[in-house]
Amino acid sequence: MKSLLEISKKFVGTKFILCSNEGMDCFRLCIEYLKMKGAKIPDSTTYKGFNIFDYKSMYEIDPFKTMKLAEEFIASLTIEVKIGFEIAGDILKMKTKKIKNDLPSHFGIEAGNNQVIIAVIDDKIKVVNKNLFKVERVFRWAQE
């Protein structure tokens, strides 16, 4: 099991690419993080009939449905924590505060000190101020 610092060093700066092994998006960031924490998630894993590593076309057709399935999958591997009680290392389902509200929620990793590790579309994995987001759910890997 790796520390959050080791994990953030591995991922921060990785290029954003939706559903690709050559980059990372918010779901892949959280899945790779859970794998580093000890979760067993083979590349062939399916959830409700969908391969969890092959969702690009589904996302392009219906990003809300795709993110809902991603949320359910993450929830199936973790325990939910009450909002406001998150700690560094928890996975956050968040909504960006200052962008049109017709975009789906996304995921990030609580980094502590009011920071969150996120995948920035058309950019890369970054550590940003958590105040930019409204936290909707909190998930914790509890099998350490």
CATH superfamily: endopeptidase domain like (from Nostoc punctiforme)
Here the CATH topology equals endopeptidase fold (from Nostoc punctiforme)
pLDDT averaged residue by residue: 85
The rounded Rg comes to: 14 Å
Q: What is the element string, with H for helices and E for strands?
A: HHEEHHEEEEEE
Helical content class: 25-40%
The total domain count is 1
How does CATH name the architecture?
A: Alpha-Beta Complex
Give the total of beta strands. 8
The total count of helices amounts to 4
- Classification by helices and strands: alpha+beta
User: For the terminal residues, how far apart are their CA atoms?
Assistant: 8 Å
Q: Numbering strands along the chain, what is their spatial order in the largest sheet? A: 3-8-4-5-6-7
Largest sheet: 6 strands, antiparallel
What is the overall shape?
A: globular
Strand content: 25-35%
Q: Give me the oligomer status.
A: single chain
Features:
endopeptidase fold (from Nostoc punctiforme); 6-stranded antiparallel β-sheet; alpha+beta; globular; 28% helix; two-stranded antiparallel sheet; 4 helices; single chain; 8 strands; 144 residues
